[in-house]
Specification:
By secondary structure, the chain is α+β, with helices and mostly antiparallel strands. Among the domains are: 155 residues, no CATH class; 122 residues, Hect, E3 ligase catalytic fold. The protein has a 4-stranded mixed beta sheet. Helix 8 runs parallel beside helix 13, helix 9 crosses helix 14 and helix 17 packs across helix 18. It is globular. One of its GO terms (molecular function) is ubiquitin protein ligase activity. Keywords: Transferase, Ubl conjugation pathway. It comes from Pelagomonas calceolata.
Length: 652
């Protein structure tokens, strides 16, 4: 309860501070849910932790009770629930309490939301507000369909938040928690620059198409011990992910932990992930695996040995031995094995993998892998197990994957933009379609032509596709079918084998805390970056060309990279500009573009009025760096750009 101070009139703003107990407890106000009687308990969510509160005598549903909660044992006090601003209330709207563990020195921002169908007074429901996953408790007397208001801490001004929304959320997808404790993907859509987008606008449709791979397993009819797997792309909004890992917490949902750690820095995520892996690793005394291989037949021996291991044994401790060679595996032999075997697997000469169409540092699946190797699916299953075991054992592999494959492993949405790394020409042609007034002038049909070892093969994207011309009315379907084919169908069996092998080792739910850039860092490690080599092999264009490295803004850029960015941020900057954290063995002088020619790291100038954020052009290894007026602004917006791009925001 808040008492109006003397001299304060209705509509004026007041500041409310919750009392803090001097002995390490924090006071909270909780609303008694509908149907709860005196003496009965009801759950309350505080800082993503569920507490049980006993309803005091004489208290009825809808009334508020004061509870005292111990502060965090880690030394971080629990945040105080934010009180509503009296000046913001309006008729027909109710105030909701938001369960948030964030505290911001920049104040709060007001949000409005309609109460979902089926939600009762006192019941909590999940939603996304300003890119944050929050739980909101429905106020007393609020009904489904009625608007309620709540506040969230913000770290930026309203103008900055609006700028981010307009510049970064064109096709951003955010994972949120549903009431059934599964993760789903939702998307910010509808209004841009205050105008409602027309769903018939091809440019709008082009930007909003996204799919998520769906991997299903089922026991075969002939044998319950054998499992069949199916793989398909589904619209991103229809995809879901269980938050249960049977081997952890007795099979109860990890939704609260997964949601909390997904919002934390990379180092915190990895530390939590390692704790979970330790829970499912089989102790040495309960059994371990010895892998014996011949160095001259390393790849086949390793594949045969690993594929003979049961799924349950993949979480045992492995020890490696090269036959006829002395030495005890105390860690060094294992590191060598992972490096050598992964290098052989990803070697294009073995024909399982080929280079990305825009980046020779990244590997994509060779659609013709089955022609070159009859056992290619066994090798892809082995590749999945190798990558999963490397992640499980904190080992590093010698191969960077294209972005769509990391997304498939994580179950992230893939978009039209992901086509560029697989087929730059197809991506460029699809981009041109959205700008044409009449697509029929292109004379396209629903087919694709593949080159299989010198032989042209026509593949129909749908039934009778060869006789179906692409028109303005069906071009959206054409784009979606191209996406389905390029991102999955042409290599579906290979991807399915890889995913099944990977999840033989790593529970899928545990990966939901990471983004695709972080997964690359986990599997490939932080690169050893020679800053002086990077500087020597950087080109400058635009207003930066005349003075080059002596330009004031360029100096600030390198000072930030050298003095303020740690190894993770340097790697993220490389990912942001070049598409991967990898550095060529020959150094930065060997960076290539999408035309396979040398494309050095390039810093190009753009006016700050055009964009306050840096822009990346991964095809050309180029960053458009605004002409900032201060080093502080450069640091702020460069840091935001390399961190936010990973969450799916479009900044080109």
């Amino acid at each position: 309860m808040v008492r109006c101070p003397p001299g304060i009139r209705p509509g004026e703003r007041i500041v409310v501070s919750a009392p803090r107990n001097s002995q390490g407890t924090q006071a909270y106000m909780a609303t008694v849910p509908h149907g709860v009687r005196s003496g009965e308990q009801f759950p309350v969510l505080v800082n993503n932790q569920q507490l049980m509160v006993t309803c005091p005598p004489g208290v009825r549903p809808g009334m508020q009770v004061r509870i005292m909660v111990p502060t965090s044992r880690r030394g971080t006090s629990l945040s105080t629930p934010q009180e509503m601003d009296p000046s913001s209330s309006s008729s027909g709207s109710e105030n909701a309490r938001v369960n948030s563990h964030m505290r911001s020195p920049f104040g709060n921002q007001m949000f409005e939301v309609n109460v979902p169908q089926g939600v009762r007074s006192g019941q909590a429901f999940a939603l996304i507000a300003n890119g944050q996953r929050v739980m909101v408790t429905c106020p007393a007397n609020a009904r489904p369909g009625q608007k309620i208001r709540f506040q969230l801490p913000i770290k930026l001004s309203s103008d900055e938040i609006q700028s981010i929304k307009l510049n970064y959320q064109k096709d951003g997808w955010v994972r949120c928690l549903s009431t059934d404790l599964t993760f789903h993907w939702i998307r910010s859509e509808g209004e841009v620059d205050g105008q409602l987008k027309d769903s018939r606008d091809l440019t709008w449709a082009f930007e909003r198409i996204a799919f998520v791979r769906e991997l299903r397993s089922s026991a075969t009819v002939s044998s319950k011990s054998k499992v069949d797997h199916s793989l398909q792309l589904v619209p991103a909004k229809e995809a879901s992910l269980s938050t249960v890992v049977p081997a952890i917490n007795n099979g109860t949902s990890l939704a609260q932990e997964l949601s909390r750690y997904a919002a934390m820095p990379f180092q915190h995520k990895e530390a939590w992930f390692r704790q979970q892996i330790a829970k499912i690793q089989v102790p040495w005394e309960d059994g371990h695996i010895k892998i014996n291989v011949r160095r001259e037949n390393l790849l086949q021996d390793s594949m045969e040995a690993t594929e003979s291991i049961t799924q349950g044994d993949m979480r045992k401790i492995f020890r490696f031995e090269f036959i006829s060679e002395p030495g005890v595996d105390a860690g060094g032999v294992a590191r060598e094995w992972f490096q050598l075997v992964s290098a052989l697997l990803f070697n294009p000469d073995f024909a399982l993998w080929s280079y990305s169409s825009i980046n020779q540092m990244c590997m994509q699946i060779n659609p013709s892998s089955g022609v070159a190797n009859d056992e290619h699916l066994r090798y892809f299953h082995f590749t999945g197990r190798l990558l999963g075991k490397a992640l499980f054992d904190r080992q590093i592999v010698a191969g960077h994957l294209v972005r769509p494959l990391y997304k498939h492993i994580l179950g992230w949405p893939v978009t039209v933009a992901d086509l560029e790394q697989l087929d730059a020409d197809t991506y460029a042609n699809l981009c041109k379609l959205k700008d044409l007034e009449d697509v029929e002038v292109c004379c396209l049909d629903f087919t694709v032509t593949e080159d299989h070892w010198g032989t042209a093969q026509t593949i129909e994207l749908k039934s009778d596709g060869a006789n179906c011309m692409v028109t303005n009315r069906n071009v959206d379907e054409y784009i979606q079918l191209q996406m389905r084919y390029r991102l999955l169908e042409r290599v579906k069996e290979q991807i399915k084998a890889l995913l099944v092998g990977f999840y033989d080792v790593i529970p899928e739910a545990l990966l939901s805390v990471f983004d695709f850039q972080e997964l690359e860092l986990l599997l490939c490690g932080l690169p050893e970056i020679d800053i002086e080599d990077w500087k020597r092999n950087t080109e400058y264009t635009g207003d930066y060309e005349r003075k080059g490295a002596s330009n004031k803004v360029v100096k600030w850029f390198w000072e930030v990279v050298v003095d303020e960015f740690d190894e993770e941020h340097k790697a993220r900057l490389l990912q942001f500009v070049t598409g991967t954290s990898g550095v060529p063995a020959q150094g930065f002088c060997a960076l290539q573009g999408n035309d396979n020619n040398i494309r050095k790291f390039t810093i190009n100038s753009i006016p700050e009025a055009v964009s306050v954020f840096p822009k990346a052009h991964t095809c050309f290894n180029r960053i458009d760096l605004p002409l900032y007026e201060s080093k502080k602004k450069l640091t702020k917006f460069l840091t935001m750009a390399i961190q936010m791009e990973a969450t799916g925001f479009d900044i080109d």
